[in-house]
Amino acid sequence: MKHHDSIISELNNYIVRNVTASVGLSIYILIDTLFISMAAGAMGLTVLNLALPIYSLFSCTGLLLGVGGAAYFSLNKVDHPERVKTLYSELVIFAVLLGTAIIILINLFTRSLATILGANSQTMDMAIKYLRLMSIDAPVTMANYITVNFVRNDNHPGLTMRAALIESFVVIIFDWFFIFGLHLQIEGAALAAVVSPATSLIVLSFHKRFPYRQLEWHWVWPRFKTLKTAATLGVSACLNELSTGVSIYVFNMVLLKLSGNYAVAAYGVISNIAIVTVAIANGVALGVQPLASREYGTRHFRNVRLALRHGLKITAAIAVLAFIVLVAFRHPIITLFNNDHSLQLTHYAMAGMPIYFTSTLFSAVNLLIIIFLTAINCATLSFSMSFLRGYLILLPAIILMGWLFGINGVWAAVPVTELLITIIGFFLVHQQDHRLKLMEDARRKAELAK
C-alpha cells in the first residue's frame, strides 16, 4: 500500500491537471459568451441561454457513458482486464450513432424545439439558425466526453489537460474568426462549438503512443450489456449535467414570465460564469475519482478515505475564494458581458449574482461527494443525491420561490437546494467512511492472521 505522502502527491497531480483542463474549457465558454454579447447583444445572450439545455443533453449523454464506463474500467483493469477490452470502442461507436440521430431530429423539428425552449418573436429567427448548426456538435461532444474520461483513467491525466488547453486556445481563434472575421455572428459561435470537441479528440488520439496504456480500439457492434454497465455507474454524473440543463430551462421559463428576455439575458451571464465554478469543482472531483476507484478496487480503504478528505479541503478552499471574487467584482464582470449597456440586464444581474453564488461552496462539495460515491461503487446513493439535487428539490424550489418572492426568490432557489443536499451528503459520507474503516480493519486483521 502506498504511503500517505505518496497518495497526497498523486492526488494533487490528478487534481491540478483536471482543474487546469476544466478551467481551460470554461475559459472558452466565457469568451464565447463575451463574443456573442459583442456580436448579437442581449438577445444573443438570451438565445445562447435558451439553447444551453440542448448542450447539456449532449454533455450528459457523454458523461453517462464516459464517467460510468471509465469507472468500470478502473475497477477492473488491474484484476479483470478481459472485461474491459472492448468497452471504450463500444461506447464511442454507440455515441456516434446516437449523435447522428440527434442531428436529424433537431433539423427536422427546429422551430418546434425553439418554441419549447422559450424563443419568442424577438429571438425565434436567431434561435432557429443557432440550433440547426449546434446540432452537429452532438456526436463529437459525446465521443469527446467518453475519450477524456477513459484516457484520464488509463493513467494519462497529463494528456487530458493538454487536450483541454489546446482545445480552448484553438477554439477561441475559430470563435473569433467565425463570428467577426466571417461576420457569422451567433451562427459562428455554433460552428466554433463543433470545432471545440473535435480539437480535443485529435489531441487525445496521441494516447495510442502512450507506452503504459491499456485502451485498445476495436471495430465492434455496441452490446446492450456494455451500455447498461456504463450507464449504471455513470447515471449520477449524467443526472448532474442534465439537471443543469433542466434547471436552466425552468429558470428560463420562470424568468420569461416574471421579467422577460432581459432577465434571461442576465441569467445567461450568471449561468455561464457558474460554468467556471462548476468546472473547477468537477476538476477536483474528477481528480479524486480515478485514485479512489483504484484504491477501492485494490482494497486499500484507508487511501480511499484519505482521497475524499483531501479533496474536500481543496474544494472548500477554492469555492470560498471563488465566491469572494465573484461578489467583490460583480459590476465589472457584468459590464464586460453587457455590450448593449442595458440597464435592465445590469439591474437583474447585480441583484442576482450575490444571491445565486452563495451556493458555490455547497455545490462544489456536493459534486465531489456524488462522484466519490460513484468511484466506490455506491451508484444508488450517488443517483439518489443527484436526483434530489437536480430535480426533486431544485425544480419545485425555483417555481415556488419565484412565485413567493419574485426574481430574487428564483436566484435563491439554487443555494437553498445545494445547502439541503450538502447536509444529506455529509450524512451519507459519514456512513461510508465508517464502512470503509471497518473494511480496512478487517483487511489488516486478515493480513496479520496469515
Largest sheet: none
Strands, count: 0
Content of β-strand: under 5%
The chain-level structural class is: mainly alpha
- Low-pLDDT residue spans: none
Radius of gyration, taken over Cα atoms and rounded to an integer in Å: 22 Å
**Gross morphology:** globular
What structural keywords apply?
single chain; 450 residues; mainly alpha
Structural commentary:
The two termini are 17 Å apart. The protein is mainly alpha-helical and 450 residues long. Helix content is 85%, strand content 0%. Helix 1 (4-76) packs across helix 5 and helix 14 packs antiparallel against helix 16 (407-449).
Topology summary:
Layout: H1 4-76, H2 87-108, H3 110-117, H4 124-134, H5 137-153, H6 157-181, H7 186-204, H8 224-258, H9 261-297, H10 301-328, H11 330-337, H12 343-356, H13 360-375, H14 379-392, H15 394-405, H16 407-449
